[in-house]
From TrEMBL, chain A:
Protein name listed in UniProt: ANTAR domain-containing protein
Span list, region Disordered: 199-221
Every ANTAR domain range: 134-195
Organism superkingdom: Bacteria
A family per Pfam: ANTAR
TrEMBL record, chain B:
Taxonomy, superkingdom: Bacteria
InterPro entries named in the record: AmiC_PBP1 (IPR039570), Peripla_BP_I (IPR028082)
Family matches, as Gene3D superfamilies: 3.40.50.2300
SUPFAM superfamilies assigned: Periplasmic binding protein-like I
Protein name stated in the entry: Transporter substrate-binding domain-containing protein
Amino acid sequence: MTFRLLQNFKGGRALVITRRAGWETTLETTLAKLGVACDYPEIIDGRAQLDVSALQPERDILFIDGDLEGALALEVNPASKLPPVPVIGLVGVEAPSRLKALVNLGATSFLRKPVHGGAVYTALFLGINQFLLRTDMYEKLQDLESRRRGRRAVIRAVVSLMQEAGLNDDDAYSALRRDSMRARQSLELYCEEFLKRRAMPPDTPDRTSSVTLRGGNKQAM
Amino acid sequence: MTRTTFRIGVMFSTTGSYSVVARSMLNGAQLALAEVNAADGPITLEPVVVNPSGDLAQYRALARELLSSGIRQVVGCYTSSSRKEVIPCFEKFDGLLWYPSHYEGFESSDNVIYTGAAPNQHVLPLVDYLASRVGARAFCVGSNYIWAWENNRIFREALSARGGTVLAERYLTVGDTEFDQVIAAILDQRPDVVFNNLIGTSAYAFFRAFRAACRAQGIDQAKEIPVASCTLSEPELKEIGEEAVDGHLSSSVYFSSLSSPENSAFLQSYTAAFPDGPVVSADAEASYIAVKLLAATLAQAGSDESRLVRCAVANQRLLAPQGEVRIDPQTYHAWLTPRIGRSSTDGQFELLLEARQPIAPDPYLVQSSPRFATSMRPPLLRMVKS
């Protein structure tokens, strides 16, 4: 996945968690110009009436008023620290504790209250794209972590192939890499399966020697 | 009937590198002022005219001076950099700037009424025209400020979406007239079209130099590498001069060659009032529209207080020289009619294409741009060692 900058917010839905006091009109009219509709979930007994599990990251953006304490119980992914949808903090009292609470909710940009129309596009652009960028980076990290865990299988497969086919380590690695690409699998996953096949008894039908031990200067894409 | 007098500011750089267009804008505004004051209406407009000479610091200082003297409504600015320079001042004093020029969009200040074209009314129709009738390999040149940067970005994205390519972008300082390297690069690349976002004296010099360079190489520039712009207007054709005036494409909401009773009356009055020129431009018409709409709005609001004017301007309509114009209540931009013209040797534009009716402004291109920004694509093929 490659990160792409979102620039047109048409069809978006802003869920504004705040007590309505008049200042939000500027936010609402400016968002409307950007193709984003506004909803104000009701706040009962200090809690916003919002089904967080129904939020859609492709459509929804949360604007959370930092002056409301604990109005929304938002579950942030413990590993990625990412909320389920982009969060933009609405800052009234500029105290470190309130800013920290917004950061802990995963806010990726901020808007000062009362909202100034000229600041909304920047906050939206930054908030959504930082969320997308962090999501993309987290997915990349997960992929790299999974590959790091798979390196042991690669080492074992290289050693196994060296012993089995009498190759040096470079040639064994190249053969595994080439065949993993032919199989359209990551090298790590291919090596895990390669070892599994080796571990099966000789009469198992699935046991095949798929490694092609031909040399040459083939180029893979 | 008792008439109420309102003092308004009129701020155009009638000296400096883009003074030709700005003087035509001042003329357009003054014509509308004269008509409003001569009419049997409820208001009289008393203009206070200032000239920032194209200097951004002067724009800021003069806007402050006008607004702090009690004026709340100002018609003015041509470049986007000057508009952006004065907006904080209008916000501070809660004044309204009536901005009468096409611009690159991505702005919608509550303290600005935009009577010129938004990008969906100038650059997108131009891209459609070029991609379908001229060619889709473009070379972009522009003056080095936000108008050219953003207009080129919109152009690039729209052209890419239609399968076209921007071969290169080159920017020069406003007022710069040294084009040898840029022209050499264009002739080296041989694009289907040059997209021009140069303004003022830079643009006039470029048109002349590019035509001459093509001629020296036996290239029929107008036919083989036409130059397309969203800024080029009739007074600027005069500045380019006879040798290089014809064959340039322009996307605009107004050309003085339009045939309508309203335009004939406008041209007749304008020519009679300003026989020494500059001749009418799209920006002069936008300035005329701005003052006319401002007068109608003040008459309706009965006050020049910005809050009341903002309410009264929503859905104002005018049968303007270009056709019907109305203000969009959500964005405070105007509904306008896009057109494509080609310049001819008589300093006019031949109309090639026009929208059937005014189209809604879309300053953020919410309705007409891709969801994601285009990015530089990595190569599709990657060589790896086997």
